[in-house]
From TrEMBL:
Gene3D superfamilies reported for this sequence: 3.30.70.920
Gene Ontology MF: a single term: sequence-specific DNA binding
Every Transcription regulator AsnC/Lrp ligand binding domain range: 6-76
GO biological process: response to amino acid
Any one of the GO CC terms: cytosol
Pfam families according to UniProt: AsnC_trans_reg
Originating organism: Actinokineospora spheciospongiae
Domain of life of the native organism: Bacteria
Record protein name field: Transcriptional regulator, AsnC family
Coiled-coil ranges from the UniProt annotation: none
């Protein structure tokens, strides 16, 4: 599974509608509104790179209110949850 983080700049008056429209696109796992240089952060999970090439310019960038996107492809996850699961393998908690 390929994970990409898409930073989205949107028209201020369209942020909620743009966020929901992006969230409704197949392949988009999560959308967050945020403060800072970007308005929305979308987490995209797809099986192949070709899907990213279709999904981001062909769907996310075409959502009304989206002004610009910046895509970052994730190589590896270092979440606490992943680390905890790895160390719990073989541990019997009964």
């Amino acid at each position: 599974m390929i994970t990409a983080i898409v930073l989205v700049r949107a028209a201020t008056d369209r942020i909620p509608e743009a966020a929901q429209a992006i969230a409704d696109i197949p392949g988009v796992a999560e959308v967050y509104s945020c403060a800072g240089d970007v308005d929305l952060v979308a987490v995209v999970r797809v099986a192949e790179h070709e899907e990213l090439a279709r999904l981001i310019p062909g769907a996310i960038s075409k959502v009304p209110g989206v002004l610009d996107t910046d895509t970052h492809i994730a190589f590896r996850s270092y979440s606490k949850q992943d680390t905890d699961v790895a160390f719990d393998i073989g541990v019997d908690e009964s």
